[in-house]
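Give me structure tokens for this 307-residue protein.
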Amino acid sequence: MNYKEYMALSTEEKFEQFMDTRFATNRTPSYWVDWSKVEENLDKYEMQLNTMNYLIGKDDVREATRILFEKDPSLISTIPVLLGCRDGKIDVLTYTENKLLDSYELNFEKMDNSIEEYIDFMDESGLLEFFKNKATNSLVDYVFGVEVGLNSNGRKNRSGQQNELILENNLKLVVEHNPYCEYSTQATGSYIKKRWGVDVPEALDSKKNGGRRYDGALYNSKTGKVVIIETNFYGGGGSKLKAVAGEFSEMYGQYLKGADNVDFVWISDGPGWDTARNPMSEAFQVIPNIINLSMVNDGYVSAIVNS
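Here you go.
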């Protein structure tokens, strides 16, 4: 189904077509691990970790640790990452001799505490035992694995980034096939006005600085029209889907609907909408151009900017 046929459907039919043609995922292979970031984080500690290898297999690992730290206090900076943490300072909860709760802070960016306090922390966290038992032959290799694990925690953020990358790739395709078109990502209304001379009504609370930043914007110099684009993907449900549907409906209905030479496209996708059919159905009553990634594949964005 092409864009013209899609727009000829009733609102209810468009909604069902949208729901029936969604993708199950937006996770490309690059989603899983950002290897360049892993390497970058490892490089910060590689020389110090090679020095810390000295502790592996030492029977009196506590004394060996003390000797190392006395010679090079900067080695304490490796302790957090060896425990799967990137914090430069760590607050620690502990018990006093009377079994009462107490807390203290350890600064791993510089040795503000005594060497014994750092070594006690390593002992109580199990790190000294880890060294003594030869749990690894190379702390560099071990931290590489730790960094991969820590990097996986960023997948939630990368999910949004994936959609933005997918959008930019498609905007590039539109521009490549249309000499009258230009695009921008993360564009504000003031940027659009300055670059293309089109007024986009501000849809952000005046108390917030900088103006609303749209995921994408396409400009057609032949028609003088700008297409504003927001994109997201929801693999799971939750209250956020209802909030986003309401936010975009309000943004279009109150600010963008009557603007000259401005169109709005909401590209959304994902199985999460199965749990929020009603909010999305209501959004279809307000926003004409709601499409999914299959429709982007079929050239709907290009059709919109050229219409």
